[in-house]
Amino acid sequence: MTATLEPPVRGSRLRDRAIRVAEAATTPLLPADYLDLFAPLRSGADLRGRIVEIHPETRDAATILIRPGADWAGHVPGQFLRIGIDVDGVRQWRAYSLTHGPRRDGLISITVKAVPDGVVSNHLVHHARPGTLVHLEQAQGEFVLQGDADRLLFVTAGSGITPVIGMLRNLFPSTDEGVLRLERSAGLDVVVVHVAPSRPDSIFIRDLEALAAAGAIRLIARYDDEHGVLDVDDLASIVPDLAGRRTLACGPAGLLDALAAHHERAGLDLVVEQFRTTRVEAGEGGTVTFADGRTLEADGASPILDVAEEGGVLMPSGCRMGICMGCVIPMTDGAVRDLRNGEVTTAIPGETGAVKVQTCINAAAGPCTFDH
Amino acid sequence: MTTIQTRAKTGQDNPIAHLSEADIEAIGAELDRIRQSVLDTRGEADAAYIRRVIATQRYLELGSRAVLLGSALPPLWVLGTLGLGVSKILENMEIGHNILHGQWDWMRDPKIHSTTWEWDNATPAAQWKHSHNELHHTYTNVLGKDNDLGYGIMRVDEEQPWHPFFLAQPLWNFVNACFFEYGIAAYDLELGKNLKTPKDKRSAEFKANARKVVAKIRRQATKDYAVHPLVALPFGAFLPTLAANFTANVIRNVWSHSVIMCGHFPEGVETFEKASIEGETRGEWYLRQMLGSANISGSKAMHILTGNLSHQIEHHLFPDLPSNRYAEVAPQVKALFAKYDLNYHDASLPKQVYSAWHKVVRLSLPNGWLATTTAKNLPQQLGLLHKMMTGSRRERRLIEKRLARAASLLEAKARSTDAAPEAA
Ligand SMILES: Cc1cc2nc3c(=O)[nH]c(=O)nc-3n(C[C@H](O)[C@H](O)[C@H](O)COP(=O)(O)OP(=O)(O)OC[C@H]3O[C@@H](n4cnc5c(N)ncnc54)[C@H](O)[C@@H]3O)c2cc1C
Ligand code: FES
User: Would the CB atoms of B119 and A28 count as touching at under 8 Å?
Assistant: First the structure.
């Protein structure tokens, strides 16, 4: 028994020892710091990617093709990834949906719409260049197909089409010979209600129209300039068999809130993906103290994440809107207020223990102390 | 040099006597404006700069260590040692010192951040940040507060009483230069003070910090004096590599010691009294940094190798601005000095090093001794010195007074002859 166990153990011990020697040779840096000079995308490195290509979709949206590092674990269509990119020399993290299924060439793509004054979206759409190294995290997110429903309704608005196009492209791959009908999508009945300010402003509208022309989906495009703003209460008349479908929706908070209310009244399930959160009135602020003793003044409207970054504290972050949990740090003492719903979370030493707080959507509600 | 405050009291020329309170605040406002102009334009090019320097240093280190594998051959030994020395200088000065100041924290890159960086130096980054950023930069050139002034073991000012013990200070200064990284570690630990404290009374904090220093020194020494020499063993270069690493460390130590001495120690740089900084305004703080620092002039390469501490004045005014921007603000700062008739200390590296060493030697001797000594009276002067070393304290004080009087007479004479040609 030991005979079969020994070789791998010895192998790993040898490897451990080699690693320790390499570390002793490079201290105070790590061997990885030197390897990164030559192979930043190698297996074992921090997950990164290199931008391969950027092509415009509309006048303010573009698709970014990225070669991910060797440790990229793949994704399920509909999921998003967190990407860190330096804009004006400052590392910024944001979340973007993957807009395709698994690809043969191993590349991944995101499609970004530039929002007014948006730091990262404008940079990606208008200024980023192929060859740029970006920082990545593995794909995550629950906005995916479960495989237990054949009749689907997608409601998308604006850039909310991105996770949905990822799912649709995976279900109905488009080739030179047209849209392929695969076994995995044979029994599906898909309706897409797509809302946009106008047709030229619609990302992926040609893809959607091609899918509709091939009979893969039924597309109901609603343009504000042609049809007026969509009233969610009209949904039942636009999609008469609404009740028999599973609804997946992605778009601005206003639409999603209205849809949630509508479906709740109708007793229907709804799966949503939100890119941005709405915020409630701010409360009183406070102070934020970090493990190194630094104390910062924080008003009641500013997320602790913003306050800390402004104050020079190195903070983990991701979507910056309370979705990915990339910004969570333990609060040992004090109270914070959730900017989405006003809910106050309190940590009392010796009673609650350290409470994990999402710093991107919580503001100080009095003095609070973080173990970070 | 005597502290600014004493000189004002004793009627000697005070370099800031002509400044009104409003002037000082105007200087502060102008410096704030200069600082903001850099913050407003800080961006991608700066980030690219520090990444380029870091990559260059790492390539240089790898290259030098590779060359040292062949260091059994003397030319390769010289090449590898120099390369490694320069790499270590870059790593400590332009990279480590400045990152640990938080100059690059704004990039939010966890790999280039004051809270995560560790450097190739005996003293752990955290302890150095405390003694350097918090103490030295706050109490710049304040006697008894700023340990950078003589590290607590040197006589750095006329007002510090002379003792025969200080005669050896040029020697200590030299030894300190060669092993500077350990000197820094010792003074970050306040080793002198703590060793005087009985063992059982030393603080838990000191003990924990001392353990960290020992661990850091062990890791550093293992790397330079065991792992790399052993890697070179198959190439027959164990001892040459070990010697090369030792030499590179000494090169780095002597270099950084020289640069740091040049920053605050040359003749003419002002020192301050403890009481003077109580209730200091932002303008007054700026003024102290302006008068308490000295620059080194020279080539771009020299500036980079000093970690831009050659712009010591700018660095002390704006310790958290990216070092690559000091050169750009220097002319503006210099113009401000000129506008307010202040002395902008700036000289070449050899001049500043000589000036700093001259001061070390001068202060190792009793006040006025060096100034009153000529080749002719050397025997008598040595006799005086001998008396001061062996005589009672009273005798020492008497001779000190005599020397001081003789020196001030000489100075007055020099001044009147200086003035004579002008009058004519
Ligand atoms: C799970 C998830 C998936 C996402 N997928 C995508 C995607 O596939 N494609 C895509 O383009 N974006 C997507 N986003 C949004 C994206 O992460 C960024 O929030 C968006 O690109 C704006 O970032 P910014 O740096 O440009 O704007 P910021 O500089 O952060 O914000 C600038 C201004 O724009 C406003 N703003 C922020 N976000 C939006 C928004 N979505 N719409 C309108 N105004 C906004 C802010 O309130 C602020 O006033 C996703 C977000 C999440 C959470
Ligand atoms: S950054 Fe994504 S939850 Fe806070």
Answer: yes
Ligand nearest to the CA of A315: 2
Give the structural domain span for A233: 151-274
Q: What is the pLDDT of residues B337-355, one digit of tens each?
A: 999 999 999 999 999 999 9
C-alpha of residue B176 to centroid of ligand 1, in Å: 56
Tokens of A237: 């008349």
Residue that terminates a domain, selected from A211, A246, A274: A274
> Global pTM?
0.90
Read off the tokens for A349: 């030493």
Closest CA to B115 of A309, A147, A123, A8: A309
Max CA distance (Å), chain B: 77
- Structural domain including B383 reads 372-423
Residue among A76, A275, A317, A320 whose CB has most ligand 1 atoms within 8 A, to mutate = A275
Kindly state the DSSP code that residue B142 receives in the 8-state scheme.
B
* φ, ψ at B190 (rounded to 5°): 50, 50
Chain A neighbors of B231, CB-CB under 8 A = 25
Does residue B1 belong to any structural domain of this protein?
A: no
Q: Does A131 touch chain B (CB under 8 A)?
A: no
B90: amino acid identity, one letter? L
**Residue position matching structure tokens 């050896």:** B168
Report the residue of chain A nearest B101, measured CA to CA. Answer: A312
Q: What is the ipTM of this complex?
A: 0.90
d(CA B204, CA A6): 45
- pLDDT score of B316: 94
Q: Which residues contact B292 (CB under 8 A, 6 or more apart)?
A: B140, B141, B264, B269, B270, B271, B272, B316
Looking at the structure of chain A, the number of domains it has is: 3
Closest chain A CA to residue B113: A314
- Best of A46, A290, A314 to substitute, by most chain B Cβ atoms within 10 angstroms, is A314
Is residue A139 within 6 Å of ligand 1 at its C-beta?
A: no
The pair of structure tokens assigned to B350 is 């050899």
* Alpha carbon distance B296, A278 (integer Å): 55
pLDDT in tens, B216-253: 999 999 999 999 999 999 999 999 999 999 999 999 99
Say if residue A254 is in the same domain as residue A179.
Answer: yes
Given the structure tokens 């005589």, which residue do they identify? B391
The answer on B404 and B307 residing in a single domain is no
**Per-position DSSP letters for A112-164, written without gaps between them:** EEPPTT-HHHHIIIII--TT-EEEE---B-S-S--SS-SEEEEEEEGGGHHHH
pLDDT tens, A25-36? 999 999 999 999
Q: How many CB atoms lie within 10 A of CB A10?
A: 10
Q: CB under 8 Å to B291, separation ≥6 — which residues?
A: B4, B15, B16, B269, B270, B342, B343
| Residues contacting residue B408 through CB under 8 Å, at least 6 positions apart | B368
